[in-house]
Design goal:
Blueprint (H helix, E strand, L loop, with lengths): L1 E5 L6 H13 L4 E4 L10 H13 L3 E2 L3 H7 L8 H4 L1 H7 L2 H8 L4 E4 L2 E4 L15 H12 L6 E4 L5 E6 L5 E4 L7 E2 L6 E5 L12 E7 L4 E7 L3 H10 L4 H7 L4
Parallel strand pairs: 1-2, 2-3, 5-6, 6-10
Antiparallel strand pairs: 1-11, 4-5, 7-8, 7-10, 9-12, 11-12
Helix pairs in contact: 3-5, 3-6, 8-9
Length: about 250
């Protein structure tokens, strides 16, 4: 199985379609979406519809914090993400909102554990910013039978952590397009990056493919029409900051 994993699409249909086409060209056989299908971007309904179609064909889909916000928008907005949750809610039809509502927070498939945030109390939406947080997530995953690999999103960064001979974790920053061997005698945690909002000064989308036969993980960066995505945000009269962030590298 070649599993294409995508997270934090954030209602960016241009980025999602580009990553799906790229994954197909890479020979992906299965798809997993690790949460935050919506939020920030201008096309939540189109993104959810695309993922619903893939889910009907067997793709695995998880709930992210922005998906939860879109189902039940907060009464008192505390962030710009909160402030647009009501707008996103109104763009989705009842069936799409129900689809987001019923999504799980995690999914185990053999040695793989897929999460949006962390394996330890995933409903708290903790971020894996460092080895300490990665270690807590791996410790929780280790209590599940057979799990050796944890894949998540949420932080929008592409990072790989592994437990070596000692108790500490080693951190590795991958090179896009270069396969990394993940032997099964170790425990691994990877954050796969954001399809729709990379936030690192580079507009290219991020996702990853895990080859379960070769035990190889490859991170990818994908070009797409981020100008069109930014223009769509402005046309929808969402906060301009969300559009500017897509073009901040230029």
């Amino acid at each position: 199985m070649k599993l294409a994993m995508m997270s934090d699409i954030h209602a960016n249909i241009q980025a999602l379609d580009a990553c799906l086409a790229h994954a197909q060209n890479q020979g992906a056989t299965h798809y997993a979406f690790l949460g935050d299908l919506v939020g920030y971007g201008a096309d939540p309904a189109a993104v959810v519809q695309r993922v619903q179609t893939l889910a009907a064909a067997g793709a695995w889909v998880l709930k992210g914090n922005h998906d939860a916000l879109a189902v039940s928008p907060p009464v008192d907005a505390k962030s710009m993400g909160d402030s647009t949750a009501d707008w996103t809610h109104r763009q989705l039809d009842p069936g799409q909102r129900q689809f987001l509502h019923q999504l799980p927070l995690s999914r185990q498939e053999g040695a793989l554990l897929l999460v949006h945030a962390t394996a330890d109390q995933p409903e708290l939406w903790r971020y894996v910013y460092d080895a300490r947080a990665a270690g807590a997530s791996l410790d929780a995953a280790a209590r599940l039978p057979a799990v050796r690999y944890v894949f998540g999103g949420h932080v929008h960064a592409q990072t790989l952590y592994y437990r070596g001979g000692g108790s500490g974790l080693m951190k590795f920053i991958p090179t896009p397009g270069v396969a990394v061997s993940l032997p099964g005698h170790r425990h691994w945690l990877a954050t796969i990056g954001s399809v729709g909002q990379p936030r690192d000064g580079n507009p290219l989308s991020k996702y990853a493919i895990f080859d379960t036969q070769r035990l190889q993980l490859m991170f990818h960066r994908v070009d797409y029409d981020h100008h069109a995505a930014a223009q769509a945000i402005r046309r929808a009269e969402l906060p301009a900051f969300f559009a500017d962030r897509l073009e901040s590298a230029l």
